What we know:
By secondary structure, this protein is α+β, with helices and mostly antiparallel strands. The protein has one domain. 47% of the residues lie in helices and 26% in strands. The protein has six helices and five strands; from the N terminus they run βαββαααβαβα. It has helices at 14-31, 63-72, 80-83, 88-111, 126-132, 147-157, and strands spanning 3-11, 37-44, 47-53, 115-122, 138-146. β2 and β3 form a beta hairpin. α2 crosses α4 (88-111) and α4 (88-111) packs across α6. Residues 76-86 have low confidence and may be disordered.
Amino acid sequence: MADLDTTVAVYKDGADADLDWTLLEDGVLEEKLDIADAALVENQAGEAVILERHSPHGWGKGAVAGAVVGVLFPPSLIGMTIVGAGGGELVARFTRSLGRGKVKDLGEAIDKGSTAIVVICPTDSTPRVIEKLKNAQSTTTAPSGTVDDVKQAMAATD
């Protein structure tokens, strides 16, 4: 049962985020970097919009990153397509795992930029993930449960 971390990288410039998104994708494809899920999120006129999901290469199927975005942004700022149908169990799981303090810290980090990359990965992959996010203005990581807990919550949404 591997522990998971959630890392949020914040960018003032979308071009820097795009560069790091490419580095992350390349790391997964070429180096077999282990991640559960990831999303490139942009603040568009006060609304969180997921521009890219890493679902083809991670086991989270886009739902895990969507659930984390659902935790970090107030419901009024996200579309239900981000969280997805049946994503409530995942949102609840991450809310409990991250805890109020870390949700607040990660949310405040996102508020400081126009674009963010959210990555959920096993704890032992976190340092390599952070290396790929080298153009970020800031990076914040928080423990966020176990692989088994998240997969169980995902199964409950099927």
